Amino acid sequence: MKIQDIRHVGLLSAATATHAKFYLEAWGLGSAGEDRHARYFRGASTEHHILSLHAAKRRGLHHLAFSVDGCGEVDAAATELERRGITIVAPPGVLDEPGGGYGLRFLDPENRCIELSAGVARHANGGADAIGGADANGGSGEIDGPRRLCHVGLNTARFDQILAFYTDVLGFRISDWIEDQMVFLRCGRRHHAIVFTRADHASVNHVAYGMSGLDALMKRVSNLRDRGQEPDWGPGRHGPGNNIFCYYKDPAGYVNECSSDLAYIEDEASHEPAVWRREAETLDYWGMAGPPGPGVRKAMAGDPDPGWTAQGLFEE
User: Fold this and answer.
1) Average pLDDT, the chain
2) Hey, which bits of 19-131 come out as E strands?
3) Global pTM?
């Protein structure tokens, strides 16, 4: 399959109003609309939305969306998935969410819902002026907010099976490892779009939002500090991916990462994945953040996530 990039993530939320207020006022996202299903949030780019919050009684992943190049690629993906006996929960068609487009949804081996889409509406005013203030789209009016969804970290109890599915079936490539405990997967030249961590259960580990650079990241740290929120881990610089990071828990207990300067794979043909050791320098090359504390580690473990039900709905 020819997946181009990560597009957006949908999360379950037991208190969408409080949750949404955090992303609009503190995290620096703008409103991208709402419907009977969810509330949608954009970053400072042309992507229609990078986050959606879906009302539910539990935490977990609602779906994870990736872009492909055109409706034909969506149809071709459906044909291949059906050939492999993979469960499709929404066949190719017009997407019933703000931004529209054409896509399909299917389940991975741990019942995560994955969306492939093309032709989604884009914002004309991407860039520094994308978050135009509350009177324009419900955003904070600040230009130091996240630009895009950078990557999503997921925990898996079926590490080898999940790795095979995302590489052999979906076409992701391995960029790096942390021993046999974490694997960094890319779908383009950016170092990773998904990170899988070996765990006792499937769950959301963290969601990383890409900032325009170090200055924007540190301004976000300052903005959150002004609101009484200190980092749960960071700032620092990771070894794999070489990105600058700072982690926070949101009101629902999900872990968010502010990220910038993620490495690019310059030569796909010659790239050899490195195996990093599980040590302090791998987690933080600068050596100033220290290891993540027990609170953020517990949050990264997440709640066991049974995934998508057979009916394609979540228990609410």
Assistant:
1) 92
2) 30-34, 38-42, 51-55, 61-68, 88-94, 102-107, 113-118
3) 0.93
